[in-house]
Amino acid sequence: MSSAFRQTVRGMRDLLPDEAEKLRSIEESARELGKLYGYREVITPVVEHYELLAAKIGEENRKRMYVFEDLGGRRVALRPEFTASVARLVATKMVSVPQPLRLFSVGSLYRYDEPQFGRYREFWQANYELFGSSKPEADAEILVITDDLLKRIDLRSYHLKINHVGILRGVLDGEGIAEEQQNNVMQLLDKKQWEDALSLVREAGGSQRCLDSLRSLFEIRGREPVQVTHEMGEVIGGFPRALEAVKNLSGILSLAEESGAGIDFYVEAGFARGLEYYTGMIFEIFATEMDIALGGGGRYDKLIELFGGGMVPAVGVAPGIDRMSLALDKQEVVSRESAVERVFVIPVGEDMVSEALKVSSLLRGEGFRTEIEAMGRSVSRALSDADRRGITHAVIVGAREMREGKVVLRDMKERSQETVSLKRLFERIKETQ
Ligand code: AMP
Fold first, then answer.
1. 103-130: pLDDT as tens digits
2. Residue nearest to atom 21 of ligand 1 (CA)
3. Ligand 1 centroid, distance to 303 Cα (angstroms)
4. Which residue owns the Cα nearest ligand 1 atom 4?
5. Which candidate in 137, 186, 239, 394 could, as Cys together with 174 as Cys, close a disulfide (CB 3.0–4.6 Å)?
6. Running DSSP on this structure, what letter comes out for residue 113?
7. Fold topology of 3-330
8. Ligand 1 centroid vs 426 CA: distance in angstroms?
9. Residue-by-residue DSSP string for 358-378
């Protein structure tokens, strides 16, 4: 075999047990949380029609899709996000399901991004979407569930950067600038190219008043939602649709604050996102130690209509599982997995193997993660192996003790051991954890 095959394809990763465990544990938290908020899981295909995925994803992301022709000659692509697939479901198979509709998905996505820290070509996301409500409480719910997920995985220090696309688009609409050109402006803003964005607005026929308002907007940012939204309102006074958007954002932020979640917001008036389908509030998650977003979301009220499903307002969030895991590493958060007991059952000699198998089954029956010594090693060698592998408790099964219905339980951390009856074994493991 050529040595090239010994490596993964560029941008693709093997996740070894420690990493896989971390990702799955975040995934599990995301699933539990979804259920807690009444979101039901949907599983959509990894391969979709190119046109569906390309519809409103934005130029930058469109260029990075894995596109190919299947053997039937269809132009298909690997999904770069969940929203288009879930919106397709809502517009077709779930069109008569009563709203509001709360759906979530968890799985892998594919983008031909340039591989670097936190940027892979295959990555995982959780995704929560609330369909059917255009009320600010729906937006606030998405913000609260996002914050709850970050708390649940024990991330310590983060904030949500937030804005409303209706503010910038409201100003551009007011000048009669076409949607296509607005999208190009948004793409530049997403990359923080403020001056280029202003030049584009000028080229598109934006007036001096509009350019001045935008320039002032781009400078408004801060942690005080009331103050910041007030300042926003002042500079876009001449653009009624933009003003409406500011009011909407301010209402959402008030509700989120009043919910008591204690979310740390950073309102930034010049912040935009590359995805074209957003129509309202937009936000991204940032951990203090990282300058790449851990997740993003917002309101997209026109996507379902685009897919032929009527006017269904929607708001959602996509937290990136890989990046949340990286942030936990940076903040040195110890995985909850490491707090779980791991039991290792060691038979004393070959004669005790079948007894050891029985004891292992009993332990697993009680829910303990249990491995058995499978290499025929002596007790001392098996114990030193257990030490290296993070085992918390060893259960030594010897003939003498077994005759009395007992085993030796060794607490690996304390390096102490006791002889206990099988009946007391489970309790003692829990007590010494
Ligand atoms: P987006 O769908 O672009 O809003 O992205 C939402 C989240 O998905 C980001 O904040 C990241 O956490 C994650 N994400 C997007 N692209 C990548 C990538 N290439 N590698 C790893 N995570 C990604």
1. 999 999 999 999 999 999 999 999 999 9
2. 119
3. 20
4. 296
5. 239
6. P
7. BirA Bifunctional Protein; domain 2 (3.30.930)
8. 43
9. HHHHHHHHTT-EEEE--S---
User: Measured from the CA of 124, which atom of ligand 1 is nearest?
Assistant: 22
For residue 56, is pLDDT > 90? no
80 CA closest ligand 1 atom index = 2
Calpha distance 160→359 (Å, rounded): 50
Q: How far is the CA of 320 from the centre of ligand 1 (A)?
A: 5
Residue type, 202: R
b vs e for 80-110, b when ≥16 Cβ sit within 10 Å of the residue's Cβ?
A: bbbbbbbbbbbbeebeeeeeebbbbbbbebb
- The full set of domain ranges for the chain reads 3-330, 340-431
pLDDT confidence bin for 1, thresholds 50/70/90: low
CA 121 to ligand 1: nearest atom: 19
**Cβ–Cβ contacts within 10 Å for residue 358, how many?**
14
Which CATH number does the domain 340-431 belong to among 3.30.420.110, 3.40.50.800, 2.60.120.10, 3.10.129.10? 3.40.50.800
Gap between the Cα atoms of 232 and 106, Å rounded: 36
Per-residue three-class SS string for 176-194: CCCHHHHHHHHHHHHCCCH
